[in-house]
Design brief:
This protein is of the alpha+beta class. The chain is 54% helix and 9% strand. The two termini are 59 Å apart. It comes from Thamnocephalis sphaerospora.
């Protein structure tokens, strides 16, 4: 059955009971429409296109109607043109060749006497114009911007916006025309003109400088809207044309950014908008929000910024969750601009932590961490710990990390720091990351006057709760290291500190932990190590006998690691001549700080140099998540692997001393390959050559080979891949830095590389950070690729020209390794 009217087709589709029935109806009708197109039935063309657009809306193929839409546009009837242009906008896009046939029709209709026909042509071009069409019809759009008809000027401004998007170099055509549109009395023309000016300023510095002279005109229009009386045509909930006000505020934000003179002119008007706009309704709140954003991005004075922050503070008390969410987000960005002003609303932010909406809680939590400083760390951490106790499980991993980091950065004294981390361990020890636990053990080992206090506090915590794994691990480590201090008392002890602890009590606790249901493999490993440590701390023969029996009990454990420890520890107890030396307290390692960064606002940045890894992350975006930088000091590796070193993940025998020629590689980066189950780097021929010699080719030496990754300004980076002889999942890449024709020595050479998340990367040190003219340096990077995916690299190279002292930065992508290098 063929449906000859659109209403009949819609009725038939709606009456279908299954998707198969609907497909059958659409297929039959599509076939009938194709037949009609082939027969050149002009009388049915309008109806067929209407039905075809309905079919397109249902998601079925409708490409075969493109040419018919062009024929409909050529019709002299306005209704045919309207439907034809609608079909072109829906069925065509800028990538299709058919679009070139539309250009002539658009040009003809832009000269039509009917303003609505001109509007159809401008609207169509504004939706689907390609770069070629924009170049061809740019002069027509410019002409229509000067039309005496306000409807045509409005449509032409929107079309000019599309032209500027597609071909930015054409913006010069519209600069003079659009200036006069700022004084247009028609609000629709003014709205589109301000939108176009904003885009022009963002595209071109020249246009920005030109329109900064128009700041008084923009301010006059904004002030007239704020002070104008009731206008039925433009009033929205008691606010005069909020859409134009928002656009004007956004334009002021662009014009005042980084310009103190222009910003100075805006202060009074922005203050007037902020104080005279009613925030009782969403319309007023939208204007206030844009005002706040503008104040924060321009060079506004301090009083005006305080006013803006106070507006956000009022938003926090609003009942609408959307407004509160926006306020929290904006306050978080504002932290770098005016920290003290945001601090005044700290109590309101803390109240948002208990909001029923999880999005509000998440934003409030981010802002709460950003508010912490030296003066309020005690109060803020106390509130955050109270929230941690009742927080959802998804919040706890990040909260434990950031609370411990904040405590480490702003702690008034070591005891408060230790108490805070202990509270975190007791409340959410199962969610504490390993590096946070390692940092806590570093802290304890460095505060010798608090060894006994910490051990006794942990002992009490373990007596009451052994369900939190991180707490159990920390307690077993402290008991093993400072068991002799645990038996003492101290003036620093409080009511939560253990008193009159005996050796028997300690051994009973370790046995209870091992016999309990929460004794994981890690807990048993720590407990055995604590037991062997205590054999060197305790004196009573009964306690020593029980500890030895406890260790011997695990000599037949099913876990190989635990069995090995038990056997080795049993043998060690019998070696009286070396036992005391082996069981000495671990030396205090160097603490490595982890900093928490707060988001920046707009283009304002603190005068602080970011770490290279963060720079690279901003370079690569989200698709490549694993980054690596040149090898950090070996002391940081000791910090990260503290637990492993203390509890002897391998044999208790001392490791062989490193060769003087062996380079120190990576901090946590050194364990990147271990995370994938790969062996640690061995001295392959390529890496040995790099670590022993400088690897610099003096004059006359042959130039290194490899794939070219960067070749700019006379400096080349060449990549030589090779399979690792000890591991088929690892690719060794020799990076050759060639100072071919820079004309001077290169200094401060630094290469950063990012790889996809499925791969891991490890750096060996660069042979030299100085490359004289005509010479080379090299560096080995190792890429673990267990999934055998294609290796893609994103590189960021920086160096300083010793002659001009200019710092050069180059960025590049490389994926040209052969298929066998995976």
């Amino acid at each position: 059955m063929v449906y000859y009217r659109l209403k009949d087709l819609i009725k038939a589709v709606r009456s279908c009971k299954t998707a198969a029935d609907e497909r059958a109806v659409v297929q039959k009708e599509s076939a009938a429409i194709r037949t009609s197109f082939r027969e050149e039935d002009a009388s049915m063309r309008y109806v067929n296109i209407a039905k075809l657009l309905y079919i397109h809306m249902l998601g079925y193929p409708s490409y075969f109607g493109q040419i018919e839409c062009l024929k409909l546009v050529a019709s002299p009837r306005f209704s045919d043109k309207r439907l034809g242009y609608l079909g072109i906008m829906l069925l065509l896009d800028e990538k299709q060749e058919t679009l070139t046939l539309v250009t002539n029709s658009l040009q003809n209709d832009m000269h039509h006497s009917n303003m609505y026909t001109i509007g159809l042509a401008l609207c169509t071009m504004g939706n689907i114009a390609s770069a070629e069409m924009a170049r061809d019809l740019c002069d027509e759009v410019e002409r229509l911007l000067g039309s005496s008809n306000s409807y045509t000027r409005k449509k032409a401004a929107l079309c000019a916006l599309r032209v500027v998007h597609k071909v930015p170099e054409l913006l010069d055509h519209f600069l003079d025309r659009v200036e006069t549109m700022l004084d247009d009395k028609n609000h629709g023309v003014l709205l589109t003109a301000v939108t176009l000016i904003t885009e022009l300023c963002e595209q071109s510095d020249e246009a920005l400088n030109q329109f900064r002279k128009m700041v008084p005109t923009v301010l006059r229009r904004l002030k007239s809207l704020v002070a104008s009386g009731f206008s039925p045509e433009h009033d929205v909930s008691g606010v005069s044309d909020p859409f134009v006000q928002v656009k004007l505020l956004r334009l002021l934000r662009v014009l005042g950014r980084g310009d103190a003179e222009a910003s100075e002119k805006m202060n009074d008007v922005l203050a007037q908008v902020a104080t005279n706009t009613d925030g009782a309704k969403n319309v007023g709140n939208s204007i206030l929000y844009e005002t706040v954003l503008t104040i924060m991005e321009i060079e506004a004075d301090h009083a005006l910024r305080v006013l803006a922050v106070n507006i956000l503070g009022r938003f926090l008390s609003n009942k609408d969750n959307n407004i509160r969410y926006v306020a929290l987000n904006t306050l978080l960005k504002t932290m770098t601009m005016d920290h003290a002003a945001v601090q005044r609303h700290r109590n309101t932010v803390l109240e948002c932590l208990h909001d029923a909406d999880i999005s509000i809680r998440r934003r409030a939590l981010e802002l709460s961490f950003a508010l912490i400083n030296e003066s309020n760390v005690r109060v803020m951490v106390r509130e955050l710990l109270a929230f941690l106790e009742v927080a959802d499980a998804e919040f706890k991993p990040s909260m434990t990390t950031r609370i411990c980091q904040a405590a480490g950065r702003y702690a008034p004294n070591p005891r408060w720091h230790i108490d805070t981390v202990l509270r975190v361990l007791r409340l959410a020890g199962g969610h504490v990351r390993e590096e946070i636990l390692a940092a806590f053990l570093c802290l304890v080992s460095q505060t010798g006057d608090l060894w006994g206090y910490t051990a006794r506090k942990l002992y009490v915590a373990l007596r009451s709760d052994v369900t939190q794994e991180a707490l159990v691990l920390a307690g077993l480590w402290a008991i093993g290291e400072y068991g002799d201090y645990l038996l003492q008392t101290d003036a620093q002890d409080d009511e939560d500190t253990a008193r009159d602890v005996s050796e028997k009590d300690v051994v009973d606790l370790i046995e209870a932990i091992l016999a309990g249901p929460y004794a994981t493999t890690s807990v048993r490993e720590y407990a055995l190590t604590a037991a062997v440590k205590l054999t060197g701390r305790f004196n009573q023969s009964l306690s020593l006998s029980r500890l030895q029996q406890l260790i011997e009990r695990y000599r037949t454990a099913p876990e190989l690691e635990i069995q090995q420890r038990a056997v080795e520890y049993t043998a060690l107890i019998g070696l009286a001549d070396i036992r005391a030396a082996v069981l000495e307290r671990m030396p205090a390692p160097e603490v490595r700080e982890e900093k928490v960064s707060s988001p920046d606002f707009g283009k304002k940045r603190p005068a602080k140099k970011a770490a290279p890894a963060n720079d690279l992350m901003s370079l690569i975006g989200d698709d490549l998540g694993t980054t690596a930088t040149p090898a950090p000091p070996a002391s940081a590796a000791a910090t990260m692997d503290l637990i492993t070193n203390i509890f002897g993940e391998t044999s208790i025998s001392s490791p062989p001393a490193k060769s003087a020629a062996s380079p120190a590689v990576s901090t946590p980066g050194a364990s990147l390959l271990d995370m994938l189950g790969e062996p640690k780097p061995s001295a392959s021929p390529a890496s040995t050559a790099t670590s022993v010699g400088l690897g610099i080719d003096v004059g006359g030496a042959p130039a290194p080979a490899g794939y070219t990754a960067i070749d700019k300004n006379g400096f080349r980076v060449l990549l030589e891949p090779s399979k690792d002889p000890n591991n088929p999942n690892v690719i060794n890449v020799r990076v050759n830095f060639v100072n071919a024709s820079v004309g001077a020595a290169v200094e401060n050479l630094l290469l950063q590389v990012a790889v996809p998340k499925s791969q891991k990367i490890q750096f060996l040190p660069v042979s030299s950070t100085v490359v004289p003219a005509g010479q080379t340096a090299n560096q080995i990077i190792r890429i673990a690729n267990p999934s055998k995916t294609a290796i893609r690299l994103r590189l960021k190279l920086s160096y300083k020209n010793s002659s001009t002292q200019a710092v050069v930065e180059e960025q590049a992508e490389f994926s040209g390794f052969p298929v066998d290098m995976r």
